[in-house]
# Entry
Amino acid sequence: MYFRTRDLAGITIFAALWGVLNLIISPSFFQIFHLPFACDLIGFSAMILAVWWTRKIGTATFVGLIALIINLIGRPTALHFFGFFAASILFDMLTFLSGYKRLFEKRLGGSIILFLTSVFSAAFAGLIIGSFFMEPPALAQWGGVLSWAGLHAMGGVIGGAIGVTIMNALTTRGFTPGRISDSKIRDSK
# Structure
């Protein structure tokens, strides 16, 4: 089996985290600050941690898909979340092409690549959302598609920084899920 039980648990936990926090926080954040950062902040932090947890292609895609389903169940009109799902597929491909060994064993280089991947993927989400899911008058108010993508890229900066910081903090404390075998987990209980 490609995804083990531990992998599936990590995927569902991080996807649920993104989906539920997005439903609770993002609409309020957008109404208060009029900025689309919260979706990116939560999503890219969750995807970095999920990919770190499993180190397998398909992880970020499944995280995005589950978060999409949660968002559409909670807010059926939130079709813009398809942009985040597309960004999760891009994030998945870019992390796979970068190589999990490089990302997670070379801390500084891997952190920079993950951070930049988050920013680029968030900008891609903004491009998709601006191009396909926003009304032209609303989009014009924000300065067009590229400005909207830039705002999402800023959310990717924040989410990438948070995800990389948490990942490195856990690694520094000796927690590296890619190297922990199931038997070691059972033995430590």
About this structure: The radius of gyration is 17 Å.
